[in-house]
Amino acid sequence: MNPRLTILTGALAGRTHPVGTSRITLGRDASCAVRFDPQGDVEVSARHAEIRIEDGRAIIRDANSTNGTYVNDRRISGERQLDDGDEIRLGANGPRLRFETGERAARAGEKGERMAVAVRQQTRGLRIAVAALVALAIGGVTAVALSGHRAEPAPAPKLDTARMPTTAAGTMSYEAIARANGPAVVMIAVEMPDGHNYSGTGFGVGADGSVVTNRHLVQGERGEVARRIAVIYADTRDWLPARIERIAGDADLALLHVDAPGRYPVVRWIAATAPAVGAPVAVIGYPLGVSSPMEGSGTAVTARASLGAGTVAKSIPTTLQIDAFAIEGSSGSPVFGADGAVVGVVYGGAAESAGRMVYAVPAAAVQAMLRP
């Protein structure tokens, strides 16, 4: 057993801590092995809880905290055994953590995991000069502030309450979908702690700068998180710094937040149900990142997203399989149904399909991640 904790929400979202083989403490005190932000994680007590390994089992104990310790949404009294995948919350509204024994990673060679790993590797990343992008993003914050520029105000996305106009035949109006949602699609540049860098796609879900993308774009297979992140919205030239706000526990999703003041475009709504097999869809993203045709060159470009048409080939609770096109840089692209709602988020594809068999996380998982 090689247990670890991944912080899913709160000021330190995205960080991973090994549990080790003996005992660790969680809290805001400087002596705690997993120390939370004294200002940002106010529900966490100075010494909130502890986890120890005993006879091959992980045991969590609340350390007389003020706001309580919860496992899978139930407040614990005394001690409780932790199982692989259990979710811990420090306080009723405090930060959430995921406990993992490492057994699932060890089973990565099994059938399902082999496919998932291959999928992630295929679209994981177009390598680009992220250091330059982040430098541009930092400069962009100043430029935005001095010019007084702000993106157009936009409401939070609705949940399957409106409909996009369709053609008389009831087929998709790709032009209407692009016009309504295209400005909210962002290109994401990432630099990992080991220096690897690559690009992907995301889309705005909050006018304050909240962006949905893939977990694998900002968190490595060993739990390490991105060192630097920059985003650029469609049809703009400003690279903006961003940070991890939340990482989904059971889907290849993450929520980012733009660290620059302003109001930003959002997608119009997120579907409540999956589309039917055979339904038309549109994928908007940045395949090949800045290497695809753009206005400008290098990192000094006006971001222009690409729209591709496709069809739902298979639908299961955890995955949408789409007959479309996706390559490096497409990870995190929103998939839109005929009514203009986001129905999925591209996370990869079968390597042997030459980019034509695309996998997406269903919209229901997006809704679950966005719930408070």
Question: Would you kindly provide a written description of the structure presented here, covering whatever features stand out?
Answer:
With 372 residues, this protein is α+β, with helices and mostly antiparallel strands. The chain folds into 2 domains: 100 residues, Tumour Suppressor Smad4, CATH 2.60.200; 197 residues, Thrombin, subunit H (Beta Barrel), CATH 2.40.10.120. The chain is built from 6 helices and 25 strands. The longest helix has 18 residues. About 17% of the residues have low confidence.
What secondary-structure arrangement, pairings included, does this model have?
Elements: E1 4-7, E2 16-18, E3 23-27, E4 34-35, E5 49-54, E6 57-62, E7 69-71, E8 74-75, E9 79-82, E10 87-90, E11 96-100, H1 103-106, H2 111-123, H3 130-147, H4 174-181, E12 185-191, E13 197-206, E14 210-213, H5 215-218, E15 228-233, E16 240-247, E17 254-258, E18 280-285, E19 295-297, E20 300-302, E21 306-316, E22 319-323, E23 334-336, E24 342-349, E25 357-362, H6 363-370
Parallel strand pairs: 3-4
Antiparallel strand pairs: 1-2, 1-11, 3-5, 5-6, 6-9, 7-8, 7-10, 10-11, 12-13, 12-15, 13-14, 14-17, 15-16, 16-17, 18-21, 18-23, 19-20, 21-22, 22-25, 23-24, 24-25
